Structures are given as C-alpha cells and as structure tokens.
Amino acid sequence: MRNLESDKRIGTICKRFREDVLHMTQKECAEEIGYSKENISSFETGRNANNNRIFLYYVSKGLLNYTTIEELVGYYGND
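-> structure tokens emitted (79 positions)
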C-alpha cells in the first residue's frame, strides 16, 4: 500500500536536490532520463511515486550524499 505522505516527502527531497545541487530544470532532467517533464513533476509532487527509474537517476547523481535514508523514509526513531 502506498504512503502518500512518504511519496510526497521523497519527491520534495528529490526536487530540492535537483534544484540545489544539480541546478537542473525539470525539462533538463527529463531529457537526460528520457522521460517527459510531466513525469518528473508527477514524481516530485508524489502523484507518481512508483517510478523507480527517476528515483534511481537521483541516487546515481548523488542524492544519498545530499540526504539520508532516514530523511527519505521519515524515520528518526530508535526502534
């Protein structure tokens, strides 16, 4: 089952990474991946979080140097 809060959080973090670190527009990112700008927008807003290719693109560009797994999944506890 999808967690919309988690989908939005991951998308927002990826958007910040794209803008702040990669200095790319959605269009530039889409062209590099081979997707449409609308696909990137949907992923970054959490409307289409089932797109592993977009997420893996961000990871390959250094996303995990920008954030942590805990921030991505929203887990900060000690459980």
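The chain has a mean pLDDT of 89.
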